[in-house]
Recover the amino acids of this structure.
């Protein structure tokens, strides 16, 4: 029987899901998410019901969303970069940022 334990670089599979903020709601339509020994850093594309789009930098700890600031060490950038490149819209947003 195969183990279901995730390795240090495997992240949880993306599932499109709703979000609600006090100024509006919508759908998380893309997510670049990697895994470190400490947390799962994530960059999410938020598609609001109004049509506006935003990106959110966040992280998950033990499978639960954490709204605090994302802190990412230099040694974990490569894995998150790989995930960002798999998500066209998030990649495009970040290219315009830098």
């Amino acid at each position: 029987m195969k183990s279901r334990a995730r390795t240090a670089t495997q992240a949880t599979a993306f599932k499109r899901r709703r979000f609600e903020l006090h100024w509006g709601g919508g759908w998380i339509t893309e997510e670049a998410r990697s895994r470190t020994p400490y947390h799962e850093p994530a960059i999410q594309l938020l598609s609001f019901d109004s049509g506006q789009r935003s990106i959110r930098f966040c992280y998950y700890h033990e499978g639960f969303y954490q709204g605090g600031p994302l802190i990412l060490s230099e040694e974990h950038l490569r894995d998150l970069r790989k995930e960002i490149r798999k998500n066209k819209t998030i990649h495009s947003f970040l290219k315009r940022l830098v």
User: Anything to note?
Assistant: Confidence is low (pLDDT under 50) at residues 1-9. The beta strands are 17-21, 24-33, 40-48, 53-61, 64-66.
